[in-house]
């Protein structure tokens, strides 16, 4: 394409033929110190761009030839496109018109049509912005893109996550680390051979979480506490980044309540008292048993009459009888043992 930019002015007739026209454009350049600046340069340029500009003898017209670009633009063959961009990327031009007694400046811009470059990476399937997870759950995060067929198989997928770490100076920072991780967390991540799928297994946590045993809970938090992830997709001519977050379900941490502690203490005291009473009863019964099994000879009282003696003998016989049955009675219960003692004393 060619464009002709024309300028015309009038002034006092004595100075009409004394007017000068000077054309300039403004190009980005890199200085010797590496700084990027915009520099005003005269037209036609004293460079390889010269052939694209032609200034009329009067200086009132500039013919600008826009270089050709074969479309679609192939990403690995962009020389024509780069030249086109250099000449037309919102390029600012100016014309200085002057004679000895006056001066004018006119500016204009040349803006080239945007051209698509093949091999741009286009995302056709992206991860969710956020994954809400809970213990013992598995999620599969998938990414899929398309580009120019020549570069479709050249795409690389690199996965990362961002972890809080403490530096040697004690500062807390967020560090970008590759996935799968080179740590004990490795077993929770599996990346497909194509690099397009990441399987993330959320560790299990037994609930309710007890305050004195939080190892499982701490691991769960490390992996899912609003953890930021990113996927870098690239080939030689384009690059994309996709981010997503994994957020774990909040879990309650419980402590043993005071009332439960009292129940446990009371229960323990009750058991202790019951055992104590049982031991005391057993000891009491054994002592009684030994007492009745010991033979004794009653002292004959000469004052007793034959009738009294008979009664004494009868009482003794009854007592011996009762003593022989004492073991069976004691084995029944303490109450029967008490009855036996009363009967013996009659």
Please characterize this protein's 3D structure.
With 346 residues, the protein is α+β, with helices and mostly antiparallel strands. It has 3 domains: 2-110, Immunoglobulin-like; 122-254, Immunoglobulins (Immunoglobulin-like, Sandwich); 274-344, no CATH class. The protein has 6 helices and 19 strands. It has a 5-stranded mixed sheet with strand order 9-18-17-12-13. Strand 2 and strand 3 form a beta hairpin. The chain is rod-shaped, with a radius of gyration of 52 Å. Mean pLDDT is 82; it is low at 319-324 and 340-346.
- Overall shape: rod-shaped
- Describe the largest sheet: 5 strands, mixed
> Which architecture of the largest domain would the CATH scheme give at its second level?
Sandwich
| Alpha-carbon distance between the two ends | 140 Å
Q: What structural class results from the helix and strand content?
A: alpha+beta
Q: What's the total count of β strands?
A: 19
What percentage of amino acids are in beta strands?
25-35%
* Total number of domains: 3
Rg of Cα set: 52 Å
SSE run? EEEEEHEEEEEEEEEEEHEEEHHHH
CATH topology of the largest domain: Immunoglobulin-like
Mean pLDDT: 82
The largest sheet has its strands arranged as: 9-18-17-12-13
Helical element count?
6
What is the name of the CATH superfamily of the largest domain?
Answer: Immunoglobulins
- Detail the poorly predicted runs: 319-324, 340-346
Measured as a percent range, the helix fraction is 25-40%
What is the subunit organization of this protein? single chain
CATH class of the largest domain: Mainly Beta
